[in-house]
Design goal:
Region (Disordered): 129-160
Strand order of the largest sheet: 3-2-1-4
Structural class: alpha+beta
Largest sheet: 4 strands, mixed
CATH class of the largest domain: Alpha Beta
CATH architecture of the largest domain: 2-Layer Sandwich
Radius of gyration: 29 Å
Number of strands: 4
Number of domains: 2
Biased composition (Basic and acidic residues): 150-160
Strand content: 15-25%
Shape: elongated
Helix content: 40-55%
Number of helices: 4
InterPro entries: HicB-like, TTHA1013/TTHA0281-like
Order of helices and strands: EEEHEHHH
Protein name: Type II toxin-antitoxin system HicB family antitoxin
Domain HicB-like antitoxin of toxin-antitoxin system: 14-49
Length: 160
């Protein structure tokens, strides 16, 4: 099996595909997710092999402005993840401190979240203190049901 680098440049509504290591091998694809198959087929025809025997690495080429905005977006995503981590840690610490003297319901009013969220914050905070990642509980079909009328019991009207 041979591996080839394929450059993909946007030309109008199509991606123009070129294989620098094989002069004269060109193809096109409407969408970038179709470039792999199209390039493998073009290379296979040129080399007289099966497309499954060809490995390609698609390298999209973007204009500088597009590269800049993609880099800015990825940077903003990283910053948002860091901010979300700081917010989670601050909320966990606040929940822990508040519930030393207040109920979870009272703490929830100060934090602007539900008392159930305060409980989650406390659980994940105590796990983080022990160096363990917080885990979600799996809820399956065997979860306890709220007490009430049996499923097959019917309501009947009584005369007044």
């Amino acid at each position: 099996m041979s591996a080839y680098r394929v450059t993909a440049r946007r030309v109008g509504e199509w991606w123009a595909l070129e294989v620098p290591d094989l002069p004269g091998v060109f193809s096109q694809a409407k969408r970038l997710d179709q470039a792999d198959e199209s390039a493998r087929e073009a290379i296979a025809v040129m080399l007289d092999v099966e497309p499954e025997d060809v490995i390609v690495e698609i390298e999209p080429v973007l204009p500088q402005e597009a590269k800049d905005v993609v880099a800015a977006a990825k940077s903003a995503q990283r910053e948002a993840r860091k901010a979300a981590d700081r917010e989670r840690e601050a909320m966990q610490r606040a929940a822990a401190v508040l519930t030393k003297q207040l109920s979870q319901r009272d703490a929830s009013r100060f934090l602007g979240v539900s008392f159930q969220r305060v409980n989650q914050l406390l659980k994940s905070y105590s796990l983080a203190d022990r160096g363990q990642p917080a885990r979600r509980k799996a809820t399956g079909g065997n979860a306890a049901k709220a007490p009430g009328r049996p499923k097959n019991e019917r309501r009947t009207k009584t005369a007044a």
